[in-house]
């Protein structure tokens, strides 16, 4: 499979920001018809989330009371290029869709890095534009980070990226929501929270040197094998923000001493044959009892994920649905 790296820049200037950002992603990483424009390669798994009731005082959200709910989990390599090897891009994604008792859904979309590199959609798009125009051949992570460095707010992200290592398993990494959300309880009290998934198996990583020797889809195979001998589990924690903690800035982590509460457990039981074509993990789809903060990146994701999904569904039309297991 080969990506088409050409971009019509004149077209980008006319289109909404989310379309421009996707055009720049395609210019940087290549165009891979039918694939997500970010986190292109991944697999879906089924599982069950069991809340422990400890969030009930803070939120009315149906999946955070007492009853267990089914979930779909998608683990993904963060690269927009589905051919990129697991070992080359340590950032990984864990997207969870909770199927609520009323058949509605809500999504919690996390990565193993606790901050993002841009505070606004405009900065995000500018960094990609710079990367697209600087590009000679497919830029690697190091050259992308050099460009991101031009944005002062990306310091925390860049420092973490220098340290992040490939997880030994998708089931052996911590995953963070990055964004804050509001929990709202039956009395209308609002509490800002961030989410953290903690793996039952603990955390383990590869050194950079070992990571590049691994197979292209090493993590997919590792998880397949792991699930043959039983479920993979994560506990879900929330971190409670103080009054002064920023709720609209994904480039800043809250201080590590903020109170954390464990609110439930996820058990991943098996792999799905295919990810449904129309599965979109929009992080702004929230039930009663949870609301978005004013974080502009969070709101922009709603637009970008929808535009990406439109592109890939259009591309898949006529090619036969469900024919690529790991899209
Ligand atoms: C300007 C901000 C961002 C943009 C424009 C963006 C863009 C995208 C796009 C286009 C997709 C593919 C959507 C689809 O086709 O279904 C995607 C997937 C994903 N993004 Fe982002 N993203 C942004 C920020 C973030 C942040 C802050 C996180 C971390 C919490 C994140 C984590 C993920 C994950 C885990 C996936 C894979 C979801 C799946 O498995 O379907 N993204 N992103």
Automatic annotation (TrEMBL):
Q: Which family does it belong to?
A: Belongs to the catalase family.
Which cellular component, as a GO term, is one annotated location?
A: cytoplasm
Residues annotated as binding heme: 305
Q: Which residues are the active-site ones?
A: 39
* Statement: the UniProt record of this protein carries the keyword Iron: yes
Q: Which PROSITE patterns match?
A: CATALASE_3
Superkingdom field: Bacteria
Q: Name one GO biological process term.
A: hydrogen peroxide catabolic process
Q: What does this protein do?
A: Has an organic peroxide-dependent peroxidase activity.
User: Which SMART domains does this one have?
Assistant: Catalase (SM01060)
Organism encoding this protein: Peribacillus deserti
Q: Under what name is this protein listed?
A: Catalase-related peroxidase
What is this enzyme's EC? Answer: 1.11.1.-
Mind telling me which Pfam families this protein's record contains? Catalase
What are the protein's GO molecular function terms?
catalase activity; heme binding; metal ion binding
Locate the transmembrane regions by residue number: none
Q: Which cofactor does it need?
A: heme
What UniProt keywords are attached to this protein's entry?
A: Heme, Iron, Metal-binding, Oxidoreductase, Peroxidase
List each copy of the Catalase core domain by range.
Answer: 2-327
């Amino acid at each position: 499979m080969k990506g088409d790296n050409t971009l019509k820049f004149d077209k980008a200037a006319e289109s909404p920001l989310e379309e421009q950002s996707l055009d720049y992603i395609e210019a940087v990483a290549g165009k891979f018809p039918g694939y997500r424009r970010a986190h292109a390669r991944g697999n879906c798994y089924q599982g069950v989330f069991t809340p422990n009731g400890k969030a009930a005082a803070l939120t009315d959200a149906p999946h955070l009371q007492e009853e267990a709910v089914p979930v779909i989990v998608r683990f993904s390599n963060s690269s927009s290029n589905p051919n990129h090897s697991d070992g080359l891009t340590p950032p990984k994604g864990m997207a969870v869709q909770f199927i609520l008792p009323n058949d509605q859904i809500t999504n919690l979309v996390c990565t193993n890095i606790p901050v993002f590199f841009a505070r606004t959609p405009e900065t995000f798009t500018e960094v990609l534009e710079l990367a697209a125009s600087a590009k000679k051949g497919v830029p690697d992570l190091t050259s992308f980070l050099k460009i991101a460095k031009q944005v002062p707010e990306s310091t925390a992200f860049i420092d973490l990226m220098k340290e992040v290592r490939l997880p030994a398993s998708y089931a052996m990494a911590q995953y963070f929501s990055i964004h804050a959300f509001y929990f709202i309880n039956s009395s209308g009290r609002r509490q800002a929270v961030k989410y953290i998934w903690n793996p039952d198996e603990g955390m383990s990583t590869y050194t950079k040197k070992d990571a590049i020797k691994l197979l292209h889809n090493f993590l997919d195979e590792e998880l397949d094998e792991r699930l043959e001998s039983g479920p993979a589990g994560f506990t879900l924690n929330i971190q409670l923000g103080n009054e002064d903690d920023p709720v609209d800035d994904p480039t800043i982590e809250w201080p590590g001493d903020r109170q954390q509460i464990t609110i439930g457990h996820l058990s991943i039981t098996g792999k799905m044959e295919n990810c449904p074509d129309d599965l979109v993990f929009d992080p702004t789809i929230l039930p009663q009892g949870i609301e978005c903060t004013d974080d502009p990146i969070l709101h922009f994701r709603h637009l970008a994920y929808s535009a990406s999904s439109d592109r890939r569904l259009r591309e898949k039309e006529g090619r036969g649905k469900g024919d690529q297991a790991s899209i």
